Amino acid sequence: MFRRKPTVKKKIEDYQFKGNLAEDIRIIKELFGHSSDLIIRYIGNDDYNPIAVLYIDSLIERESIEEYVISELNDNYKQDQNNPINVKEINFSTIKKEDTSSIKESITFMLQGYSLVLIDKQTNGIALDTAGGERRQVSESEVETVVRGPRETFNETLQTNIGLIRRRLHTHKLKVHEMNIGELSQTTVAMIGIDDVVKPEMFEEVKKRLEKIEIDGILDSLYLEEIIEDPNGYTPFPTIFNSERPDRISAGLLEGRIAILSDGTPGALLVPATIGLFLTSNEDYYQRYDFASFLKLLRGFSFLLSIVLPGFYVALLTYHQEMIPTPLLIALTGQREGVPFAIAIEVLLMEITFEILREAGLRLPKTIGAAVSIVGGLVLGQAAVEAGLVGQATVIAVSLTAISSFTTPSYNLAISARLLRFALIILSAVLGAFGLIFGLIFIYIHLTTLRSFGVPYLTPIVPFHKDNWGDLFIRTPWWTMRERPNEVAGENKDRMSDSNDNNHLNRRQKK
């Protein structure tokens, strides 16, 4: 028996323009699988059509096609076949006009919303920018809300997002480097940094990591985040910051960080990231420094509370009752009469129940999601206490932990706290306070080993930079923060002249 040799399928790189309009269109149709949204418009008379316009119907703006492409071609069309139209001499009114020399390049332009103009007896084409279609408008953030400050957020359009940053940073030093990532998706990814402010070696390192990505598609910035982050092994802590607010990303760029934007993602990544970046809210810089400092301390304490409180409660009631004042111990013991579970099981059940309610609230429609979470928590907590399954103090401890976790500005860091909370509960149930302290020491050691593009995660705590502590646990006045963070700033480290500080001191002395 003879086996049939497998047919070798041509790659798109193997196809070239042949100079025959009908043959070139046939090849493009076959490459697109005769898709119904591939539109072909011919320019010419009934007997001879020397020009064709090809585009993807779902990616273009029809008014631009009709007004700037079809209308111009019809006005310049010549009936004489011996003296055909020279498309290069036509001044199209589109934003961009690109010459294409291969079928692969032409298809890439079409998939970006360009219209492709092909001319008979010519082995190249012209791509005209007519991108459009339905896109979400710039709206107010529903996740990173503020009382005072800008309301704009990123949407899914890359050029709109870059424009939102440029409207805040009116400088020619803002450089944008774009690349396409994903063999099938060809997602446009943009790197943004400020010359002199960003470290050149850091910019090149981010660029190199992005260019090394080989994947079939990028549908969200998380794909990039997991691929390009430092090889720290497994860590529950996020090492790349993300935000959907242009003002937050612009503030990071002014510090010397690098923004990474992905087409189709309503947000941006910011690298390198340190622990202080995740504990800082947008509103810290829109309020007076004294009130902002109080809120930063409150959030830091709440974050620590959201990790430690359940484990501390389990260790205290399981192994260290002598540390509890006698009246409080009697009250807690009375509440637990008839409860069939141990303290650790009781807390774990309540924590898991609350996580289920939180997840259900996220998946339900917005109009009823919040109501289900609140009412469900109240009803289940009260019913569990009345049924004798849990004690009242346990409900209070778990509820306070949940409320504290909501104060964490970064959602990714709040998720890390939720995971670590369960580990500390188990350690506290096994070893008591020793297990809790051992767990905290292990977390601290783990944090000291983390890096974000080579920058230590706990900077400026470890390594110690006293000049940057004014914007870590508290926020000092703007006139005292004259320099950018040491760990990320490039050649230009000054963001405020010393004269501002002197002027402020002189005004105080006059008073």
From TrEMBL:
Biased composition annotated in UniProt, kind: Basic and acidic residues: 489-498
First-listed, main subcellular location of the protein, grouped into a coarse class: membrane
Keywords: Membrane, Transmembrane, Transmembrane helix
Compartmental location: Cell membrane; Membrane
Bilayer disposition of the protein: Multi-pass membrane protein
GO BP of this protein: spore germination
Residue intervals passing through the bilayer: 297-319, 364-383, 389-407, 419-445
One of the record's GO cellular component terms: plasma membrane
Region feature (Disordered): 489-511
InterPro entries to which the protein is assigned, alphabetical: Spore_Ger, UPF0353/GerABKA_families
Similarity remark: Belongs to the GerABKA family.
Protein name: Spore germination protein
